[in-house]
Write the structure tokens for this entry.
Amino acid sequence: MAKREDHLKQGANVSPLESAIAGSFSGAISRAITAPLDTIKIRLQLQTSDYKAYQGVNSTVKSILRNEGIYGFWKGNVPAEIMYILYGAVQFTSYSVLNKLLSELEEKRQFKLNRSLHSLIIGSGAGISSTLVTYPFDLLRTRLAANTHGFLSLAPTIKNIYHQDGLRGFFIGMNPAILSVASTTGLMFWSYDIARTYSTKYQNIPFIEGVCGFFAGATAKGITFPLDTLRKRVQMKKHNTTSLISNTTTILRNEGLFGLYKGFGISVLKTAPTSAISLFIYEYSITKLRTF
């Protein structure tokens, strides 16, 4: 059996069109499978010391089922699916473009970055690019998924945000989002590269890309989780009057250090499989596209 190619390695030659198509498939499939875990994670992250409706994963699942039914796990899924499709396309396309540009710069300037450092740099750039394009959908997803009273419609939610804060309202929490996503994405590609490097002798094992992706997702989320919590808290503010520092201070004062890690367990359970599915589908899609 031929060794499968790593399409994310340093200097890999993947066209923007290939990356966009494969990234779109990757985002759509990974979101569809892991949406319920994302809803549970958001509910846990948004709890404060004054309002504790959910006391862990089991009680959260039971509460959603009891009060909102099975479809409650897919609240906010429309903007989330749009976000993940766009995010996957932009993330992997920008990664392949930046990968090529940085590799050419290294060759032109006659220097060579460590493979993992190379992946960390361009992964962070890919995270920033995808966040800038998809952030309004992320905010809408959070608002819809956090609602516990029936189902909010997408159009009225958009109108409400625009009425309160104008276009700026769709970018509330952008600063912690960019910091969070850039860090998480960079660390994900960094740890994925390390995993692929050390798993060379296992390349013919089915789903090896997914195994490496699972490790990458868990590693990245474990390091950057507090930033994700801050992003979700800021996104729920009704007006664009908050800052990263003030929100951090408020959480630490009222909820302690643990407040920054609410929903951490379910987040890792959601992020690791999402990364596994996303990276596997991307690599698989590129391979299949090249057979046509």
In short: The radius of gyration is 19 Å. DSSP finds nine helices and no strands in the chain. The first helix runs from residue 16 to 45.
